[in-house]
Amino acid sequence: MKTFMGLATAALIATLGSQAMAEGDATKGAMIFKRCATCHTVEKGGAIKQGPNLHDLFGRKAGTQAAYVGKYSDAMKQSGVVWSEDTLDKYLADPKGFVPKNKMIFVGVKKPDERANVIAYLKEATK
């Protein structure tokens, strides 16, 4: 019984977590993304700045954006990460913890609701 309750609780937490992420506010996310826009663009054919352009981000393997390929850290190229809502949430929460030795100097977005909003914005803006 104890194991079943533990599994049920874990399933509920996972469901609530994915619902919270799905409910991010893209408009609020656009405002938060302004912190990121110093280094990243989102539109197709957008400029390469300090960081890679994020167009077509979802489903892309980390370290493979063609115009930025020679500038990625070895850590990012070798991470095996494929960008999704979940991997972005973890990365944005703690970039150096999620991909140690990556070269992004941003400390992350610590508030879960702000990360959900940025991810909602990126889902719209990077299509």
Description of the molecule:
This protein has 127 residues and is mostly helical. It has a single domain (2-125), classed as Cytochrome c-like domain (Cytochrome Bc1 Complex, Chain D, domain 2, Orthogonal Bundle), CATH 1.10.760.10. 47% of the residues lie in helices and 0% in strands. The protein contains six helices and no strands. The longest helix has 21 residues, at 2-22.
CATH topology: Cytochrome Bc1 Complex, Chain D, domain 2
Looking at the overall shape, the CATH architecture is Orthogonal Bundle
Strand content: under 5%
The first-to-last residue Cα distance is 45 Å
Q: In terms of structural class, how would the helical and strand content be classed?
A: mainly alpha
The tally of helices reads 6
Compute the number of strand runs: 0
Largest sheet: none
Q: What's the mean pLDDT score?
A: 88
CATH homologous superfamily assignment: Cytochrome c-like domain
Q: What is the succession of H and E elements?
A: HHHHHH
Low-confidence stretches: 1-21
Shape: globular
GO molecular function: electron transfer activity; heme binding; metal ion binding
Organism: Govanella unica
Keywords: Electron transport, Heme, Iron, Metal-binding, Signal, Transport
Protein name: Cytochrome c family protein
